[in-house]
Amino acid sequence: MSDKPTIWMTGLGAVTPLGHNYDQIADRLFAGESGVSRVDTFDVSQHPSQIAALVKDIPLPPGWCVAEFQALPRITQCALWSTTQALIDAGLWERRHDHRLGLVLGIGAEWGILWEDDFNRGGRQIHEGDGESASLVQQIRRLLNLHGPVHTVSAACASGNVALSVAKKWLEQGWVDRCLAGACDMTITPMSLAGFGNLRALSRRNDAPAAASRPFDRDRDGFVAGEGSVVFLLEKADDARRRTARCYAEVAGVGMRSDAFHMVIPSPDPAPAIMAMRRACHEARLDPADLDYVNGHATSTPVGDQAETRVLHEVLGSAVDRIPVSSTKSMTGHMLTAAAAFEALACVMALDRQAVPPTINLDHPDPECQLCHVPWTAQPRPIHTVASNSFGFGGSNTCLVLRAA
Amino acid sequence: MRTTPQNAMSSCGLLAQAYLQADPLSLPSIRKQPGLFRGKPLPGSILKNVDDQTILGLAAVLRAIELMPDPNVDLTDWAILGSPRFIARMNLSEQFVKFKAEGAWSASPHSIPHRCLHSTSGTISQALKIHGPNFGNGGGPGGYVETILSAVGLLQAGEAPGAWVVCAGFDPEPYRQVRSENRWQLHALALALISADHPEYAKAPWQLSVHVDSEGHGAIAFAEEDPLPRRLAEWHHRFMQPLSAVSSPMSEPGEGGFQIGVVGGIRLGWQPTKAFQANATSNRSNQAA
Asked: Among residues A224, A242, A260, which one ends one of the domains?
């Protein structure tokens, strides 16, 4: 029996293509609404893929004036809202200075995003620089006046799970009293949308945006890029109980393993991803067959969806026929560095609403992806433990297990 | 009023380290062959499109492996924590101009996999067939401290038997003027950290520890003064300068943050923990005696 402290999620903040407050996001997620639309924030007429799941507006955190907030880069706005909201939601906003409060954020291309934004507005930071600014996590630390270590991590699309893993360890090791953890990505920029498009990774179903993200479906043609930010407040269960805080979920286990095969293509050997799932379940002291729901990585690419199906068959065994698997990327697109953090949120919502969010656009399941799918309509059922798979460029395989408290 | 009056400390061993520099003349040959891995060259196809910082980081890892007490130590389950600093500035600056002139079809498909924070760790994992966790850390000023902190935490948790910390960065930064005069220099540092449970721990030439106190202040400390912390001290001076210049909170006394230094020796940068200060004072007294 482990003597590690139990870690709870007691607050959250989010900016997503489905909205920016808990009920709004959950309502749209369980109603099967798509957040994908044609990109209208820049000219995409020459882009191979012209659709994305965009964040339409970023709310103003308390204490900020509109002009000051809007002068910040969008990625900073997103991170500020999410971290502030997570602290408010946890009931710790006023007392945030009283703790060693860490911050771990998954961000894959922070400087690239900032440089491109600056360049497109006529700036020359990338060419000439004017003294390098502090990183986003350092800025958030200063703006919120936090007292604890900060850390930027990136495992591409698995970054959110890595951030939760790092934060969990910091809490277990007593380096922090509480920790904000999540991920943030605002990569829907002219050049990155073109880069993903030229990588031939994106759907070109430009005339039907809401139908473009089709995980596990026979007729899929690539993923749809998305953006957003999701941050959780983590603390030890004993501390949370003492202050009678609400618990969204226990962070029961995180497994991480690398393919060591290719920067972009999933390994034909499913062993590393299998190991990641098994490690997460082992840390959670859970038989994988006892999972009540799996939020698949399932990006809507044939090679990725089929590889994950093989992993799920191996890990879940005969239970693969009865444990529901869905991909919320069908609604949010692939939020890239922020994807794993959003999918952790979708799992929290599944625990809360006792229902499995659907995979929309799943009309004709790929015969190579035989799973217990949840097409189109949310499925009410008892849910106590959930797993979220997230795999990333660079060969990162991660799995997060959450449990109802 | 802080709520947890406790200090926390985690320790690990340092099995090997390597520090490399490259300039515009030497980098192309390093790219062609960054080194041998256990006597064999790496496949060129892996290295063709990767970023310069990743190339030199990989070369530093290969050099550090040669310097290990047992160069055949099993690395399969090790973690790789990459920390490129402002990765791909040179490449992206050219791509932005091209993109503006030529449009969407000019965007390189290699940018996504090879110009992100996780690109260094992912490439090294692939090149050396290392299956432990791999992820990017930091990315800007002070990123190497975040990386060491994360690696020590990961080892302490038993997530991997060892962890590569791979830092890279330019000095001076390759701004347009610097590039046109060909006076940039690229630096890379590879540290092979192992947990106290590792069979090679007894052979590790150095130990380091992370201290975090009840105020949220922290330090990364070495047990004694030796060439490795000196190397880190140089790294710190080279790459923390821009952060100090903008008065980041991590460099301001009283707001916490982490310090790299040598107990009883060199002290650098950030606000030290009280325990660290006490140790340093005590060691200095002992040395004076």
From this structure: A242
pLDDT higher than 80, residue B279: no
Q: Per residue in A308-342, pLDDT tens?
A: 999 999 999 999 999 999 999 999 999 999 999 99
pLDDT digits (tens, 9 = 90+) for A157-200: 999 999 999 999 999 988 889 999 999 999 999 999 999 999 99
Residue B227 pLDDT: 55
- Are residues A173 and A231 part of one domain? yes
My answer on whether A90 and A174 are in the same domain is yes
CATH number, position A225: 3.40.47.10
Is the same domain home to A377 and A258?
A: yes
Distance CA B283, CA B233 (A): 19
Q: Is residue A108 part of a domain?
A: yes
**Hey, is the C-beta of A100 within 8 angstroms of any chain B C-beta?**
yes
* Residue A142 pLDDT grade (very low, low, confident, very high; cuts 50, 70, 90): confident
In the chain, the amino acid numbered B84 is: P
Residue A253: closest C-alpha in chain B? B159
User: Which percentage of chain A shows pLDDT scores above 90?
Assistant: 92
The range of the structural domain enclosing residue A396 comes to 252-403
* Catalytic-residue membership of A334: yes
- Cα distance from A380 to chain B (closest Cα, Å)? 35
Q: What backbone torsions phi and psi does residue A49 show, to the nearest 5 degrees? A: -115, 130
**Is-catalytic flag, A364?**
no
Q: Which ranges of A288-383 would DSSP assign to H, the alpha helix?
A: 302-316, 329-332, 339-353
Shared domain for A297 and A259, answered yes or no, is yes
Cis omega (within 30 of 0) on the bond before B172?
yes
Residue B7 belongs to some domain of the structure:
no
Last residue of a domain, one of B186, B203, B220: B203
Going A280 to B121 to A336 to B44, the CA torsion angle's sign is negative
Please name which of A110, A160, A158, A115 lies closest in space to residue A136, comparing C-alpha atoms.
Answer: A110
Task: Compute the distance between CA of residue A293 and CA of residue A404 in angstroms, rounded to an integer.
Answer: 12
A267 interface with B at CB cutoff 8 Å: no
Q: How many CA atoms lie within 13 A of B127 on its CB side?
A: 30
Cα B131 from Cα A256, distance rounded (Å):
9
CA distances from A165 to A256, A402, B57, B237 (A): 9, 12, 25, 31
Other Cβ atoms less than 10 A from the Cβ of A27: the count is 15
Cα A46 to Cα B107: distance, rounded to the nearest angstrom: 11
Q: Which domain holds residue B233?
A: 205-289
Mutation target vs A (from B53, B118, B159; most A CBs, 10 A cutoff): B118
Residue B253 and residue B191 share a domain:
no
Residues A287 and A363 in one domain: yes
A173 SS3 class: coil
pLDDT in tens, B109-133: 888 899 999 999 999 999 999 999 9
* Whether residues A312 and A231 fall in one domain: no
Domain boundary among A187, A212, A242: A242
Nearest chain B CA: its distance from A260 CA (Å): 4
| Predicted local distance difference test score (pLDDT) of residue B215 | 59
Co-location of A27 and A49 in the same domain: yes
Q: Indicate yes or no: CB of A132 within 8 angstroms of CB of B246.
A: yes
Distances (CA, A) of A384 to A60, A277, B206: 35, 17, 46
Three-class SS state of B231: helix
Specify whether A283 is located in the same domain as A221. Answer: no
